[in-house]
Structures are given as C-alpha cells and as structure tokens.
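Entry 12.
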Amino acid sequence: MDGLRLSALALHAVADRDRAWLLSRLPDAQRGPLAELLTELRRTGIPADPGLITQLVREREAMNEGARGGQPSPGLLQAAAEDVWKQLRGEPDAVAARILRRNRWPWLDDLMALCGPGRARNIEALIRTLDPAPALEQALVQELEARLQARQASPGRRSTVKWQFFRRGGSAR
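Predicted 3D structure (tokens):
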C-alpha cells in the first residue's frame, strides 16, 4: 500500500473535525488526491477503525523487513561476538550501526559489551537515527559474512578491507 493510501486510511479513522484540520494544512497538490481517496473509502464502507491502521502499519513494516533482502548466513548468526568485534572494532560507528540494525543478532549484547559503554551508546544512537539505506546495509552485512568466512578459512591471513572508503572521509550516513 503506498503512502498516499495509507495516509487516507489514517485520516479516515480520525474524527471529522481533526480530519478537516489536517487536510487544511496540506498543499492543494496533496489535498486533492487525498480527498478523492477519502471519498472512495466512505463509499466502499471501509470502517473508520484506528486498529486497522495499526495492523496495516505492522504489515507494511513486515513487508519492508522482508524487502531488505537476503537473510544472513547461519555462520554469521552463530558467530562469536569476539569474532564479529575483531572485524568491526576498527570501523566507524556508522558502519557497525548499519550492520547491527539489519537483524536481531544473537551476539549483539556481547558485542556491545566489547565496544565499551561510550562507543556502545554512540552506536545505539546511530541505529535509531541513521536514515535507512537497505542496499548499503545489506552490502555491509555481506562483507562482514565474507570477512568471517575468510578468517575461518585461513585464520592467519588478513581479509581484504572493502570498507576503507569510510575511513577516508566518506560516510555511512
């Protein structure tokens, strides 16, 4: 469901007075299409139920979660926090944040403890505030998986660092 339709459904569920006020705040280019969708909702008899909005938002979040692409490998899910930390400790906090927010990692708490309190707080703040970048985040997770696999295949050999552009003044933001 696109944003305009979701907005119309949300407006459909609020009180008439609040709906009128919200619509009056929108530019004409947005108000017209939204008003048409509201009329369509009333005509079709869809109930003005705030619970329906909550359900739709959850479904949309679940779809977005699935659209993020590829599940991490079992090896990454089962990795030791210390091994993940060895790969991330020299990386910018934004890189770590983008990787950590991609999944509910079983080793997350242990990894954050390894970071130390200051860095952990900074990473947690970035997890909440960085703009979404699904393709970048997926690429970073894949690179972490590759690093861990390379380390397991030949523990004495250092893997190629593909994230160096972040250290040279680039940003993960």
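Annotation: Residues 38 and 64 are 25 Å apart (CA to CA). The first helix runs from residue 3 to 13.
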